[in-house]
């Protein structure tokens, strides 16, 4: 009988600029809340691997372990699955990575849930309690009595997002403190997702394959109800949406209601450059408490933007930076290095651009072939993947063979980009411009970039063996 369920999300132990803002993903906590509402005894953990083992040392009275993984945490998730199965505990694993690699997951887990799990997990528990059949569970992959892999048709995306309960963070242990969500300074950061899906088809992004091309939204009143659970004096909000302003009409309705009710949260979210096409929208965001925007600018090379199917121009990027900064909102720009049209010259020009345009903070990410993406499929087809060391699939390690530079040159270009952007001189200039948050993040990033090179010395030495690959590629590609 499945009664006690533990939900695990292992933390990625690779560090980057925003590692200090330690946020769990919402999937496991929502699923834990759903199963608590079904009278199961549940607990959720967001911990590093060693902490998980110590928590369960000699305390394995668990009926089902539910593990959620992204690509960067796949290897640790598989190790955890192996460990708990060796103790006689059933394991189900889900999340973006195993959605596209269910057979790999079943080498370590009893069950794999592909896609959204809000419908599938309760049905799996019912099936394990002999109330239904495993064949009826949408998105389930498992091995039958003959060790044959069975993969059920994936569940349709949930249309009514209001039907999903608010995540109960009192169920979460993220390092000894229940409800310790994310330390953004004096206030805990509360993650809230108000929509799912994305109609854009960026070649390197797994959001669309995972959640579909159609935007689905929670109602304004449903979101407001969740916001009212928290205290603006103790909490800040991170809206987890991949594009918070995808529907301008709906975003304005939500912002106006937040203003009308005087909720007074400081909050941040992700948007596209097109947010600046509506000045009223930007002004409402400021008035409602927006303090920081994460924007995927990706590149300033028109050919690279075309290659990735980004559907934005360099002029739109400049316009977005200018209009958002003018309103005193912190701009965090995300750029991606390694597209086939990229050269060392264009990558250096990108860094020049970020400094000239006075972006507050940036991340220069290495193009990463995440399973499920168009880019991953192309790299496999062209035999350009370097390895499947999943814990290095996090945007800071080269995992494919670039076209116009060696792997070593690409890696060094990223390290150098962060070094140039976060020099002490540039960091102090941001302070003198009154960008206080950019200053403090810049100090942290300056130190972290130097530490990263030391932490990854073995990886970097190994990467040097790829020197000269550029000449080989000229023949291969």
SSE blueprint and pairings:
Elements: E1 4-10, H1 27-37, E2 41-47, H2 49-55, E3 64-68, H3 74-86, E4 90-94, H4 96-100, H5 102-105, E5 111-113, H6 120-128, E6 140-143, E7 149-151, E8 172-173, E9 188-192, E10 195-196, H7 207-211, E11 216-217, H8 220-227, E12 235-239, H9 248-260, E13 267-271, H10 279-287, E14 290-298, H11 302-307, H12 314-326, E15 330-337, H13 344-356, E16 361-366, H14 374-381, H15 407-421, H16 424-432, H17 436-455, H18 457-463, H19 469-476
Parallel strand pairs: 1-2, 1-3, 2-8, 3-4, 4-5, 9-12, 12-13, 13-14, 14-15, 15-16
Antiparallel strand pairs: 5-6, 6-7, 10-11
Describe this structure in words.
Helix content is 38%, strand content 16%. By secondary structure, it is an alpha/beta fold. An 8-stranded mixed β-sheet has the order 7-6-5-4-3-1-2-8, with helices on both faces. The radius of gyration is 23 Å and the shape is globular. The N and C termini lie far apart (55 Å).
Q: Which strand order spans the largest sheet, edge to edge or round the barrel?
A: 7-6-5-4-3-1-2-8
> How would a textbook summarize the main sheet?
8 strands, mixed
- The number of distinct helices, counting runs of at least 4 residues, comes to 19
**CATH class group of the largest domain:** Alpha Beta
Number of DSSP strands?
Answer: 16
CATH homologous superfamily grouping of the largest domain: tm_1862 like domain
Please indicate the percent range of residues in DSSP E strands (runs of 2 or more). Answer: 15-25%
Mean pLDDT: 90
Radius of gyration, in angstroms, nearest whole number: 23 Å
* Distance linking N and C termini: 55 Å
- Class by alpha and beta content: alpha/beta
CATH topology of the largest domain: pyruvate-formate lyase- activating enzyme
Number of discrete domains = 2
Shape: globular
What is the CATH architecture term of the largest domain? Alpha-Beta Horseshoe
Low-confidence stretches: 176-183, 470-477
State the helical fraction.
25-40%
